Amino acid sequence: MKMRQMNINQMIHNIKGEVMYTQKIIENILSNDLRGAREVTHTILSAKLTEKINDAYDEIAPTVFGEAKKAPVTDKDDDGEGMDPVGAEDDDVDNDGDSDSSDKYLKNRRKVVTKAVRQDEQVGRASAGRQRGGEMTFGVRKTEFKRADPEERSRIKQRHYANKERQTRDMEAERKRNQRERERKQRERGMDV
Fold first, then answer.
1. pLDDT, tens only, 122-165
2. Beta bridge partners of 136
3. Which of 24, 80, 106, 193 is the most exposed place for a label (fewest CB within 10 A)?
C-alpha cells in the first residue's frame, strides 16, 4: 500500500495538466485498478479543495480576523479613562470604546452568574448538588445505583464500561485520523515545493 501511494504521489507530482490526470484515471479503470483510480481521484480532489479553501481563506481572513467594525460611540459609553470605578459603571462593559451586543451579553451573563451564586449560597452546596442531578456512579445517580438489585447493578456497570471502552476506541480512532491527515498534508506540502 505504501509503495502504491508513493507511486501515485510521484505520478501526480510528475504528471502535468488535468487531461493527463483524467487519462490516468481512465487507464486505471480500464485495467481494473479501481483502488488506484479512486486514490488518484481523491488526491486530485483534495488538492483542488485545499486550493479553493486557501483562496477563500485569503479573501475572507482580513475581514474576519482584521479590524472589526465597531458600534458607534454614545455619551453613555466609555469615557476613555480605562476601567470604571465601582458603582459608576457606564454602558461599555468590556471597555472597548463602544456599547454593542457584546456589552449586552456581558451584562446578562453577569446577572445570571450572580443569581446562580446567590441561589447556591441560599440552598447550600449539598442540596444544590442534588438539584442538579446528584452524585454519579457508573453513569447513573448514586441513589439509583444503590436502590438497584444486583443484576441491574451488573448491567449498569457493563453498560458503563462498554461506553468507556467505546469512547476510548473513538478517541484513538480520531487520534489516528488526525495523524494520517497531518501526514497527508506534509506529503502535499512536499509535492508543492
1. 665 555 455 556 678 888 888 888 888 989 888 888 999 999 99
2. 141
3. 193
Contact 127, 119 (CB under 8 A): no
Length of the chain: 193
pTM of the model: 0.29
**DSSP symbol at 87:** T
C-alpha cell at 150: 444486583
* CA–CA distance, 126 with 129 (Å, rounded to integer): 5
Q: Name residue 136's amino acid.
A: M
| Residue from 25, 46, 45, 48 nearest 35 by CA | 25
Question: Is there a contact between 78 and 98 (Cβ–Cβ < 8 Å)?
Answer: yes
Handedness of CA 144, 150, 156, 157 (dihedral sign): positive
Please give the C-alpha separations between residue 192 and each of 15, 25, 47, 103, in angstroms, as whole numbers: 13, 21, 10, 46
